[in-house]
Each structure stands twice: as structure tokens, then as C-alpha cells.
Design brief:
CATH architecture: 2-Layer Sandwich
Structural class: alpha+beta
Strand content: 15-25%
Shape: elongated
CATH class: Alpha Beta
Oligomer: single chain
Distance between the termini: 22 Å
Number of strands: 5
CATH topology: Yope Regulator, Chain: A
Length: about 170
């Protein structure tokens, strides 16, 4: 990793009370507010730094419904702003990943991406929880028109937040 990028990350960590130090595998795990965890993974083979956030598990009986919604959001990064939603089968969790090319990275772009990725992590953790809740209600046969209106309201709220979340302007 470029020294200036590593230095910028350490400064960013110091500003936010985080110790940013990469282990022998090129990974750095950061504990953020509300028990959130953000992982920075250096990938020398691709000259990139991946921003990774585990968003949480999805109960097996509703995965089909939830995964359909996640795939639709992932299509051409329509609702992920350049990041990718994935399924980590080993951990059985939805994961959000944003790869940053280090070839063009500057200290300023790293700080911007770090901040916006953390915001995106919050948004997607909330949306995933909503998707799970809605799918569980449908699975249990407890859905009604009010649930559909709540889902529509949640989707509209997500639309309003989107403009501010473009990761790499």
C-alpha cells in the first residue's frame, strides 16, 4: 500500500479514536459505533483496498425472498453506489464490499470513501433488517396492507438517502 494512503488511514483513525493497523494478512478490523465492524483488507495482487462490512445473517426459511431483493439492489450497483452485496456462505451473513483501487487513491479520497462506506453500512444494515422483518411476516402469513405500506415507506426513505451516499464521486 502506498505510504501516503497508509498514513492517511492512520490519521483518519486517530481523528475517530480508532487504531488502524494492518495484520500480517493485510487486514484491519475496526469496531465502530453501535457494535458495527468495518474491515479494511489490503489486496496486493489487485492493488486495492477493500472496505468490508458484515451486515448480518438471514434466516434460512426466508433467504429466497431476501436474496431476490438484495440481487435487485445489486444490479448495476443501482442501490449500492459502487459497493457490492454478497453472501458469505461460510459465515452465513450478507456482506457489503467496496474495492478501492490504490492506483488512483489519494488521502482525501480514502477519507471520503471511509466515511461514505460507514454511512452505507448503516443504511444497508437497516434495510436488511427491514427486508428480514417483512419476509418473516409474509412467511408467517401475518402480512396485510399496512405492512405493504410500511415497506413502501421504507423504500421511499432509502431513495431520499441515496443522493448523499455515492461512494466515489
Amino acid at each position: 500500500m502506498k505510504e501516503e494512503i497508509e498514513s492517511a488511514l492512520k490519521e483518519l483513525g486517530a481523528k475517530n479514536g480508532l487504531e488502524i493497523a494492518f495484520d500480517e494478512n493485510g487486514a484491519c478490523t475496526l469496531g465502530l459505533a453501535d457494535e458495527r465492524v468495518l474491515i479494511l483488507q489490503e489486496r496486493d495482487d489487485l492493488n486495492e483496498l477493500d472496505f468490508v462490512a458484515n451486515l448480518g445473517p438471514v434466516p434460512e426459511e426466508i433467504r429466497g425472498a431476501v436474496f431476490t431483493d438484495l440481487l435487485a439492489a445489486n444490479f448495476y450497483w443501482k442501490e449500492t453506489f459502487g459497493a457490492t452485496l454478497s453472501w458469505n456462505a461460510d459465515l452465513e451473513e450478507v456482506v457489503l464490499i467496496y474495492p478501492l483501487s490504490l492506483a488512483d487513491a489519494t488521502p482525501e479520497s480514502v477519507e471520503t470513501i471511509f466515511t461514505r462506506f460507514a454511512e452505507l453500512q448503516d443504511m444497508w444494515a437497516e434495510r436488511l433488517a427491514g427486508m428480514i422483518s417483512t419476509a418473516q411476516k409474509y412467511e408467517a402469513g401475518d402480512s396485510d396492507e399496512e405492512d405493504e405500506e410500511d415497506a413502501d415507506d421504507d423504500a421511499e426513505a432509502g431513495e431520499e438517502e441515496k443522493d448523499d451516499l455515492i461512494i466515489n464521486p
